[in-house]
Write a structure and sequence with these properties.
The complex is a heterodimer. By secondary structure, chain A is an all-alpha fold. Chain A contains 3 helices and no strands. Chain A is elongated, with a radius of gyration of 17 Å. The mean pLDDT of chain A is 86. By secondary structure, chain B is mainly α. Chain B has a single domain, classed as NADH-ubiquinone/plastoquinone oxidoreductase chain 6, subunit NuoJ (Four Helix Bundle (Hemerythrin (Met), subunit A)), CATH 1.20.120.1200. Chain B is built from 6 helices and no strands. In chain B, helix 2 runs antiparallel to helix 3. Classes of the chains: A mainly alpha, B mainly alpha. The interface between A and B is large, with 72 and 87 residues.
Chain lengths: 102, 166
Amino acid sequence: MGDISPFHFQAVAAVIFAIGVLGVLTRRNMIVMFMCIELMLNAANLSLVAFSREIGDDQGQIFAFMVMVVAAVEVAVGLAIIISLVRNRDTVNIDDATQMKW
Amino acid sequence: MRNALFWIFSVAAVAGAAGVVLNFKNPINSALNLVVSMLALAGLYIVLEAQFVGLIQVMVYAGAIVVLFLFVIMLLNLRGSGAPNAETHPWMKASGIVLVAISAWLLLALLGTGRAPWPDVDPSYGTTRAIGEALYSDYVLSVQVAGVLLLAGILAAVVLAKKRVD
């Protein structure tokens, strides 16, 4: 295997991001799709921090911190949307939420 | 030591992520797998000597976000109904295969490159002090904008989740 480098972390980030995309594409439960979006954000964060470590500069970590802030807001708003959708439609299946289909 | 921790945490992170996607029975199981993945990612940040981001990861993701997910799942009393729906989306299987192939290729390409083994950094790298000083000097506008964004998020969540009283 050899010694690891910050670049190995990019590979882990790529795998987690791919799993997240796969989840969003295949799962139909809105809450699980939402968790997969969180996985993708986390993979991006890991990539940012690994690049930050590789060049020895803190900026990438600050960027990751801001991504976390946005993710927290996004979860609060998204789960509120899911709650109001379940209240109106009584389902979490994304295929049943087609009111805005043109 | 560092190698061992990297492999342990990365295997845990990937297994947790796969568990999120592959749990069809109950979204609670997905949320608990998400916790495993988030904690393993926090471990990876600490292996990368980014202590501050690692601790924030534990507090914000494993602490707040996943608890919010669990709270909503239990509030709505959801069960099942999340299995992949291949009939309505026949292209999804193909896109999944393409995606896995691309990520495997990327993985091999990444691991094949001969990079500098482990660059040395300043001892203050990634400490709460260094990040805090940067946040409150060079990035103070970003912090302000983040505060406004959080306020907007709070208001939006309350308005959206409120029961109609008319």
